[in-house]
Queue: 2 jobs
Job 1
Amino acid sequence: MTPTYQIVPLADQGVLIDCGETIDIEINRWIDAAARAVRVAGIDGITGIVPTYRSLAIEYDSVMVTQRELISRLGQLVGALRVSHRRCRRWRIPVTYGGEFGIDFDDFARRHGLDREALIALHTAPDYRIFMIGFMPGFAYLGGLNARLHTPRRDSPRTQTPAGSVSVGGQQTAVSSVEAPSGWHLLGRTPVRTFAPERQTPVLMEAGDSIRFEPIDSERFTALRNDRDWLPEWEWIDDGRPSP
Amino acid sequence: MSDDRDNTDVAFRVASPGMMTTLQDGGRHGQGHLGVPPSGALDTMSLGLANALVGNVSEDALQAFGALEITLMGPRLRLVGGDCVVAITGDAEITVNDRPVETFRALALREGDELQIHRVLSGARAYLAVGGGFAATPFLGSVSTLARAGVGGFDGRALRAGDRLPLRNAARGQECAGRVGEPHLPQREKRPIRVGLGPQSDFFSRAKIARFFSAEWTISTLADRMGYRLTGPVLASARGHNIVSDALMTGSVQIPGDGQPIIAMNDRGTTGGYPKIATVIRADMARLGQMKPGDRLRFEAIDPAHAEHLWRGRQEAFRAYLARLAI
């Protein structure tokens, strides 16, 4: 599927391949494929490639390539793009829900008329797709949240939330990576260090990967958190779909 | 911070840290897909010039060597373990052992000397480079400090009193002592900040866009390396102030719900959820980086080809100047 897109200038800082205002898995797959195609093409002067939910931003330096040339080359590349399924990772991300780990959990459950087990069951059921890594290093925005859990953001954002927070904002859920301000509802925390600067791969997961959450108790959380070398398990899957 | 086991090596000891002093280089580019912003000096030409004055030359003068980026009030540093050569660019009042010395000049320092950058006079930032560079471990190819993620620079944060800043190769740059550069002060250029419209300028009526360009904006006290908030007329969007998260550039001008613009700076998020009315051109980012709370600005629209022409011209002239300086 080729979505409707426009290629627009961002002054002389970049160009944006913009697919508009829709959160859609097929559009996100196309953007992921376009980002890979641009990376492989290795066009001189490109200084950054940033895929998001609904767009692909290309940063460039006009000392090396003009915007006119760049837009023309990008137009050819993405015009001819075919989205094939690709192998990506499905991560098993343990989460401790509620209590000090998710200070909004009880209010959130009450708001939706759910008991603890029902809320955890609804939140851990889907395979979530990472639609985007953005905002902060390693912050993963996930698509696939059950519509029963869609919840407007808090009226007033918190100025600081812990690294590893698993939260819900609007129709999205997310795994945070560093301490950050947030207006989302904090349901739990994972001991996974999704961003670890000293690690060979500082950012663990990438856009296009999938996540499955698994509830763990606080003792398990502490044990995993204290093991600096521990990494979550993952398996290869075909672009968010189970392997045949 | 490093301990004193190797205190025979040359280092600066931080007596007082200044308001916000961080190690920055030309930036950590190409990591936006990981959510990692570019960081780097807000005034890259002042960074490049400071390094050129002390002989820190590399293929890309703007990239390879870090320098201390000093914000408004500078640090007091004591040189320990040996001698070195430093240069400070920017409009700043500086002393060595409490005697005034010049900016835009390579200064030979002796062990025990106390260097102080008292305050930045015009503009917001000054840069301190040292011959041979600072010894800091790069993260994803850059030593630039990103305090929000605790990476780069010295311990991933701004300087604190008592810190020890090891120098990589302080013997280098001695031959540059006395070298003088032409003052480079982008803050002296008094003209509107030039932008390209979009990518979400269609969220705003023609009247609001006209207001964006006719208004005089003031940089608020909420202005840091992540972004500058401006105050002025309220720019309400016809289509709300939330979009599906989209990429940010350095220079993206976002309009959040209160209708007051935020210009994304080098430590910005890589993505954001507010509509963007415009993007500041590359050639005007250093000048913006030298602005501070209370400063006023206007915006002017130019087309991307014109912006590219300005940037290329500026880069070519600057590189040619640095090449002459090195002879």
Job 2
Amino acid sequence: MAPSAPDRRNTELAAAFVELRTALGRVLVGQDDAATGLTLALLAEQHAYLEGPPGCGKSELAAALAALSGARTHTLVFHRDIRETDLLGDVLLSRHRHRGHERLRRELIPGPLLQAEVALLEDLPRSPGEALGPLLRILAERHALGQTLPLESAVATGPLEQVEAPIDPLEPGQLDRFAVQLRLAGLLTGGLFDEAAVLLEREAARQPARSAVPSRTFTTADAPPRRAVMSTAIRNAAQRAAVALQVEPRTLDAYHRLLERLRQRTADESASGDRLMSDRSFSSAALRLVRAHAFLRGAPAAAPRDLGAIRYMVAHRLPDEVQEDFDHILEELLGDPPNVTMAETGAQMPGAQSQGDENSDGAAASSPASDSWIDDQADLPAPPSLFGQPPPPAQVDPLLRALVGRIERGRIDPDTDPGGQPRGYRPLRDLDELIDADLIEALLFAEGRLPGAPRTFERKRKSAGGAVAVLRDISASMAGRLTVWSSQVVLGILRVAARRRMRVGYVEFHHRALPHQVGGRLLHRSYSRLAEQAGQAKAVGQTNYEAPLRTALEGLRGGSGRNRHVVLLTDGLPIIGDTTVRRERQLARRLGVALHTVFLGNGDCPPVLDDISLETGGLRFCGRPLAGGGLRLEER
Amino acid sequence: MSDLTPLRDLLDHHVVGHDEVKTAMLLALITREHIYVEGPPGTAKTRLAEVAAKGSELDFFFYQLHRDTRLAELVGDIVLERRKVKTEGAAPGTAGEAERIHQRIEPGGLLTAEVAVLDDISRAPGEALNVLLRILNERRFGAEPIPLMAAIATGNPMDDEYYNEPLDPANLDRFALQLRVSGLIQSGVDEAKTLIDRFASGSVVEQPDPEPVTDRATLDALNQQMYEVEVGTAVRAALLDVLRTLVLEFECNETNSLLTDRTFLVKAIKILRGAALLAGRDAVDLPDLAALSWMTTFRVPPEAHEALPRIIGRVSRQIQAV
């Protein structure tokens, strides 16, 4: 059968995007997925969010997409002080005289970002809420200042989410505006050494472009100039053709089953990572990407295998484990014969479900067991990554709530700080603040035409102060479920500390104190590293209170500020060292450190723990194992 | 062949000791990479930067960062351009005048300098530095290329939280070379005696303005020569083995390290070439790998950084044996 004219035309258009994909793939070594994802995003006219560790080539790839696609581009680098005018355009200030009144009006004139076909938004999460809200709305509506934008795709870049990062990560809801979400891995940290060798070879062969005219200026010259591989007419024609592609009924059928499968897997609370399967993304955007995928491979209609395009959407929509399993889930689904009956009763697919569980080694399968206490230490679950980890079982909550309350006491979060993020506006109070005022209002104010004072940024910063040291008894009697439980308490405290950027210290102790220092210091902000450590504790030896308290207080002594805490987790009487810890109690009082004590187990709480807490204004908790395997936690 | 011996002599003349910092600064000028030097107050950090810049007759921008540092202070002045335009009023008879107001930056400071000294960079709020550091990285402001060759940043140890937050590690990554210095007297090295003797004899004029001993043309020529330095298979294999060891044996990962591809797969090649060139060779040799430890100072955990010379030695022996 000879291909019809429209099919031939489509093949030509698809070829242009295949060339784009190939050229993008050459930009970076070993980032093929990202190249494909970006190509699909542009073809489907969807926005894309690229995240990855610093220096893995996010910006270069985004810039290459813009250059190779021949689109009109504008790059915007986000920073703390970005303003509405940077995003939208110049201000038009008009004055109208009417019957003796002067009326001032301010409007915005569309700036270069609003005229871009491909917008590059660098370091998007660094933008304060002030500028981000309007921008995300514009991206979603593709309409601003009374006009429809020519915007086809916005490509944003951002850092990998890390608890240590000083910026607030974007919320899943904000990220949902970006249909395509790609997570780039570093070659080195991802262990891709073969690809790293290729890159090294490429760099060793690099010669700088020697300019004929000596110039005082130069760019890093790392990125060679790139020529567009397609015209705007072809790009737009391909986009129109791709979105018009038919979706085969069996593809829709498979899609419904895929969504159901993903929904089930996502509902599992033990998985870590974001979860947001919004209607917006999984109806319109997803199907556009599926069509684009089919178009790119020259298919006349979207077949079930084109559902593979969904994998470029999931970085912030599905828990990490489900993401890793995505290809597998899809493969398994497509392997099933498209059975209409099964698809209709997707929610109760017994066969398929159990099969899925068998293959998802770990996370999902072990979830029923996670409610009961695990007595065998070998079964201690590996500590999940600190970030996005599900809350610890309810048993830990009363203690954490009380602790947070103590930590928060006397704190306003975030604090007003002249170096902080603009979190809103307030009237000018001092002429010094004029530098931070709304420029137009400041101008009018200076001309004496503004009734009242100009508004200025209200800057706030999360208070970074404070420190908490966790002392954890790992003596032999702590074996089994007490180990699991105290791991959860430690992880909970670490999470609390990370959120408030408090420095943390972690000391395990039996007859000796085993501080986990980073860079030779007890107190630091390497939360993830401690979280990892906390999951590996082994119970051995006997109990000594003096050594760990001494270690913690010495570590806290150098610091400043009032918000300093020590949490002592133990299940037994001190046997070694000064069992009354008299000197340590004195030192804590002098330093103003609150010593919180948590006693675990069935025995009587040693009176010395009460003394420690009462003298230093710390909390007193005890946790009693229940017959049913649970643990009741209450204030002593 | 051009060389930087006169500049090195000048640095030696003005500052006692700190061999590594001096070499690294020359390396920064040749490779056009930025350098971050951290150390306690009074260890000649700023002085070295100043002498290096003035000695090579480069346009020099000095800025002391502080906790309220704003972008405009670094890149020039914010200019408001006002242009009158006619408008139609909404109602008849209300036609009025309007002004179009455009905000832009008149380049200055960092945007016009060839060498920038950013003093006490750890005091500036990490967030405010983002744009600054991006300019450093791309050597462009908007679409305009800038003449900056190297930025030399100094900082105080991040021991306590008195001054703001520590630098965002991603920001620190913009400085390819990173060194830690300590005071001569405090570390009790022999040079401390030389230092005191020199001041006692009056042979040091405090804060003299150094005469230029080299120039931009020399540095440009060296930069061109750098790209001609050969990086052979053995060196590349050794570099990769060192990195592999850091990842696999020392467990450097995204959480505890900043082992970025940009730095260790792209910039490292430049640094190695520069080190070979400074040593007067036209091919990178295995001993040049020692320069890697000027890249790992704040990028990998301290124990891995300290082990680096050992790792390089082991890898070099293995490569030579093959």
